[in-house]
Amino acid sequence: MLNKKHAIVLVAGQSNAVGYDESPVEYRSSYSPNKRIKQLGFNGTNNLKIVDLTHCAESYQDMTPFTNPANPTRVGTKGIHLPLANELLKHIPSDYELLIISCAFGGTGFTAGVEGTYDAAAMKPMNGTGHGGIKWSQTSPYYLAMRDRLKFAFDLSHENVFLGTVWIQGEQDHADPSTHYTEFQNMTTAFFHFFNTNGYSKRVKKGTFDKDIWYNVETTGYWYTTFAGCETIWNNYRTWNPTTYVLVARETETNLVNGTGATSSTKAAHFGNNAYEKVIAPNIVKTMKTIGTVLLAFL
Predict the structure, then answer these.
(1) Quick one: what percent of the chain has pLDDT higher than 70?
(2) pTM of the model as a whole
(3) Three-state SS across the chain?
């Protein structure tokens, strides 16, 4: 374990970060597991272990109850994680593995939810009855677990490096974009400060944690057309750092195509039908290459 070198990516936010793609799982192309693609486990005895990444990443929210009945042995839904990792694998040296750390739960935001409690030993957020309903903030158990899990991964090897945070969140806060933006800025500032002041600044290409390692990804077209506040939220993200803002075409497919409705009756609210593979992962990696945060930049 300790002699492995990892290029690390955080995936965090709410439902479209967890991965609610309900379409049938086919192990092909970008959804093919690879022994060089790992995740930091979260569930059960996998917690804080480096394990293989499958189509359904282990995250704050357990997606195994939403398995498509068309292929019941391929448990859970699909997310950005495996397509993103397979795409990034093309751009890192062969002696590195890709390590995904997923920290997301559907329906979570900065303006609603409980404070929750934090199990620092397990690096897990808890609200007493599960992980749902906790709000994001600079002191949130969601944030603390994300921060500490990344630190844990860095400490496995001094050669482990960070490619960035993929952040997909905002829909829950559509009624109060102003508070969302303030709290988001507070949280990211705390994140950058923690790693810069605790000896991890050299783990990123620029030698400092800042806005250039944080990628804000657009949501589905449904949210823009249904709630005016969502467009304001993503305009704020674009203003915060246009360089790492990840465009996603409004017509990108959702669970309206090949979705079961198991995760949400509003199928258009979530990316589906392999949109992560076909559109979103390539757009993220294109942005990463443009700004130079892929691992080749470290060599």
Answers:
(1) 96
(2) 0.96
(3) CCCCEEEEEEEEECHHHHCCECCCCCCCHHHCCCCCEEEECCCHHHCCCEEECCCCCCCCCCCHHHCCCCCCCCCCCECCHHHHHHHHHHHCCCCEEEEEEEEECCCCCCCCCECCEEECCCCEEECCCCCCCECCCCCCHHHHHHHHHHHHHHHCCCCCEEEEEEEECCHHHCCCHHHHHHHHHHHHHHHHHHHHHCCCHHHCCCCCCCHHHEEEECCCHHHHHHCHHHHHHHHHHHHHCHHHEECCCCCCCECCCCCCCCCCCCHHHCECCCHHHHHHHHHHHHHHHHHCCCHHHHC
